[in-house]
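USER:
Working in pairs, take the chain set out below, taking as long as you need, and write a paragraph about the fold.
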Amino acid sequence: MKKNGEIRYFLSQPKNIKTLLLTNMLFAMVLPIVEIFAGAYIMRNTGAASMVVVYQLCMYIGVALSAVVNGLLLKKINVKTLYSFGILVSAVALMVMMFIKNVNLTMICGTGFLLGLTTGFFWTNRYLLTLYSTNDDNRNYFFGTESFFFSLWNIVIPLAVGALLASVDGANLFGRTLNLQNGYQITTVLATVIAIIACIVLSRGDFKQPESKNFFYVKFHSLWYKMLSLASLKGMVQGFLVTAPAILILKFIGGEGELGLIQGAGGALTAVIVYVLGRVSKPKHRMAIFGTGLFVFFAGTLANCILFSAAGAYIFIICKIFFQPIHDLAYFPTMMKTIDYVSAIEKRDGYTYILSHELGLFAGRALGMILFIAIAGIFTEDIALRYALLIVGALQLISLPLAQHITKQTEK
C-alpha cells in the first residue's frame, strides 16, 4: 500500500469519520500517560502493587458512573460538548493528581475516581459518535486506523516521557533542583495542551444528537445479554492491561525509563499489522483476528506465571502489546454490529446499549481487580501477579466461542 494512496483513502472518508480519527489520534497521545505512568507514579510513591489495583478499581467505578451521568446529560447537552469535556477534564484531573505530594489511600481512591469519571465521558461518547458515524463495512478500517495511532503513541509517548523523567530528575532550573515529581507535573501540563487541541479539532464535526430521551432499561433481547457477557470477559482483562505492566517492570526490571523502552518493543510492528488488517480485512475475518489476539494474551500470562522474572515480564508485555489492538480491532465492530441488530428489533437508541455495555465492562473489571486484591490479601502480591493474570488469561479463551455465536446471530 502506497503512502499517498492511504492518504487519499483517508481523505475520501466521510467528514465525521475523519474528524473522529483526528480527534482520537490526538487524545491517544494522552492515554499512555493516564494508563501507564499514573500506575507507575503510585507504585513508586507507595511501593505496593495493591494500591495500583485499588486506584484502577476506583477509576473504573468513576467510568461506570459517568456513563449513567452522561445518559442524563445527553437529554440537554450536545454530545460533542460532552465528548470535549471528557477529553479536557481527564487531562486536568491527571495533572491535579501529579501535583499532590501526599500519596495515601484517600488520595489514590479520590483521584482514581475523578480520573475515571472524566475519562468515562470520553469513552462513552466516543462509542456513540463512532456508532452514528460508521457502518459495518467501514468499521474495520476505522478501528484499524485508530488502533494504529494508539499503538504508535504507545511507543513514542512512553519513550518520550521516560526520557523526560530521566532528564528532569536532578536537573537544575533557575537555581532549583528538580525531582521526579516535577517531571510528572511537566508531563501532565503538556498532556492538557494536547487535550485542548483535540477539542478544537472535534468542534469541526457535524454529529447527530440522540433522539431518544430514555436510555435506561433493564430488560433486553437475549442476544444483548450474551454481548454483555462478552463485555464482562473483556472487562476482566482490561484492568490488568493497565496495571500489570507497570507493576511487573518496576518489580523486576527498573524505573520509568525502562517502562518506556519496553512499551516500544514490538509496538511499531503491531501498529503496522493492525492498520493493514483494518484496511484489507472484511467483517468475515473478525473472528480469526479475535481468536489470534486471545491466544497471544494467554501465552503471555502463561510465560509470566512459569518464569515470574524479568524474562517473563518482557514476554508478557510484548504479548500484551500485540493483543490489545488486535483484540479491539475485532471486538468493537462486533459490539457495534450487535447494537445495530438489537436496536432495530427493540426500537431503542444506540446509547441505551452503550450505557449497559459500559456497566457490563465494569462488572468484569471489578471482578478482575477484586480477584487480584483477594489473592494478594490471602496469600501475597507475588502470587497474585503470577496466578490472577493466568486465571484471567485462561478465562479470555471462553470469549472466542461466545463471540462466534453472537456474530452468527447478527448475520441471520
